[in-house]
Design brief:
Layout: H1 2-30, E1 34-39, E2 65-66, E3 77-83, E4 87-95, E5 115-121, E6 129-134, E7 140-147, E8 150-151, E9 163-169, E10 180-188, E11 205-214, E12 220-223, E13 239-243
Length: 244
Amino acid sequence: MKGITSIVTSLLKALASMCLIAFTVNAQELQVPVYEVRRTATPIKIDGKLTDAAWATAPAVGDFVNNLDGSPSTYKTEARVLYDDNFIYFAFRAVDDNIWSTMKRRDQHLWDEEVVEVFLQADPVQGSYIELEVNPLGTLLDLYMLAARKPLHYESWNSERIQWGVQVNGTVDGKGGDKEWTCEIALPMEDIVTAPRLPPKPGDRWRMNLYRGEHFPKPAGLAWSPTLQADFHIPKRFGDIVFK
């Protein structure tokens, strides 16, 4: 009888441990990151170089992870965000020993190649958001999404005053020996039409996600806030940004 009791006790402990693990994983899946966006007193020169002194005042958003499961990625990616009265600024640094892209025309399907992406939702109460992508050749895709995966026609909405720039330490040819590429984007506040207040005030809270697509030496989809699906367009998994 004592032996049976011991076995039952062990099984109950194991079951409790499994339940705790499942609860912990589920809780982790529900969490999204939060980033504090600092104000810059001087406009950023958008040339892709990330040399403006203001970027040193902006902390990195945190690690980019594999989008499907949130696991660490071997592709190191850094991003920062700043704002002023006229723009919200994004900076990316993508460490990459094999940089590749081919598309040179605005609004091509840049997500099919190597790229960095911004998804910005100023009012999570309604479903629209802005999607921006830039590839290592300096090509831009800008979309206004009415809802998840429901854009205005690609050619029908272009930001008129958006600025972007890229610097490549290497060659964009799909061959090894490269170091990294960097990107800056300045999105005009006037484009963010759903924001409750423009420019945002300290304490205002928006939603954002940042992504990176890689192809060589092997494909990878990376995210600041992983959607945990084979799809970047999951607004409920976007992270939060709070303006300082």
